[in-house]
Amino acid sequence: MKRNNDIIRLDTISQVHSLLGLDRPKHPLITIYRHTPQIVANTINLSFSGNLYYIAMKDSIKGSLLYGRNSYDFEEGMMIFLAPNQVYTTPEEVETDTESLGWSILFHPDLIRKSHLGQIIDEFSFFDYEVNEALHLADKEKQTINELVEKIENEIDQNIDRHSQELINVNLESLLKYCKRYYERQFYTRTNWNQDYIIRFEKYLKSYFSSDELTEKGVPSIQQCGEALNMSGHYLSDLLKAETGKSAKEHINLHLVDKAKSALLNTNQPVSEIAYTMGFEYPQNFSKMFKSKTGLSPTVYRKQN
Q: Model's pTM, two decimal places?
């Protein structure tokens, strides 16, 4: 276990157990532990990172945690998801109401590498959300998730055989798919809140595309747009997809195409010059993008209109 600028590096399940004072792990690639008051107390104000996926349910704990540079309050039934090499800092102090404080799952990428889950893990974009974009579960949803956690736990506790890893992965995949469903529910139940962000996002794009930033800095990235709205790019894209049917990238490209159309029809600038003013280093990339969205090359579009 190595420290790097006070960040504890956890690359193996054994290192996790050693840090938490737990017995030797029963499986080398995955562990589930309950948030007992003792474990919560032993992990106060520590920063972690490493080559492990992290899923946690925070329950009956009052306090705040640090993710990036921001601090967020815990809420009952809150779930967070971290991909390998993200940094997570535990609270400086917490209050506990009961002995039931939730649980954590940590697993190594090797656990899922040869499984179907390994092929689709990138589809679960919430691993790249910020902690303030956590999943908040209703009681019935929490029960479903906890039942799946118990199934995984039972497989870990049994003697490992040739079926163990497959069954662990199947239940882990089911857990993540339910979480994806619940996140989509959360988007829909926050429609009024989401609409405010969509309006702000559209205003940001209009301002960006009408300024010199487009020429100087190029097409804005999804992460850049998310940061302008104080959220992760992944969360912004999923929010837009749920509300409008289009991802953040599609929205950005629509603004780009609209600006390109205006330039093609209202100026005599060569296509290559328009491409440069719109932040494209290579005109052929601009032409390819324009044709993919309109069905016509920039030159043909200009002639036909």
A: 0.68
